[in-house]
């Protein structure tokens, strides 16, 4: 599985704009986003993760297509990934911004669909 495949749900302009706004190199941001997608696929797997999140949180799935899920989850989910992937605060902020920006650019999601105390997470389905 290539980084290009893992980055498929994210528009190039979203990645570029978020990199510039967060003062992070585009290559580093793309690697971090791809690492996150890879981690979800490998441990324990996309379908298993979404199943667990659906059991644990109240209706977190905003969008489900054959290619991806878009979810609204508590920030603690991102904090756990940051620890697992050894993201510093700047990298975590940029990666979560990519997911948030991509989500609000998705026609199927209204900004108001994301609860105030939750953050967006885009999961590419293998």
UniProtKB/TrEMBL annotation:
It holds the Pfam family DUF8048. InterPro entries: DUF8048 (IPR058361). It comes from the Archaea. Residues 8-107 form the DUF8048 domain. This is DUF8048 domain-containing protein. It comes from Haloarcula onubensis.
């Amino acid at each position: 599985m290539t980084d290009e495949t893992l980055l498929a749900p994210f528009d190039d302009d979203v990645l570029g704009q978020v990199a510039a706004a967060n003062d992070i190199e585009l290559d580093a941001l793309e690697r971090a986003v791809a690492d996150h997608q890879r981690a979800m696929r490998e441990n324990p797997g996309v379908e298993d993760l979404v199943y667990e999140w659906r059991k644990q949180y109240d209706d977190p799935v905003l969008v489900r297509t054959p290619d991806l899920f878009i979810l609204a989850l508590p920030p603690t989910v991102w904090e756990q990934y940051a620890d697992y992937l050894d993201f510093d605060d700047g990298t975590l902020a940029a990666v979560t911004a990519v997911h948030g920006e991509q989500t609000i650019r998705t026609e199927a999601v209204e900004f108001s669909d994301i609860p105030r105390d939750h953050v967006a997470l885009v999961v590419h389905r293998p």
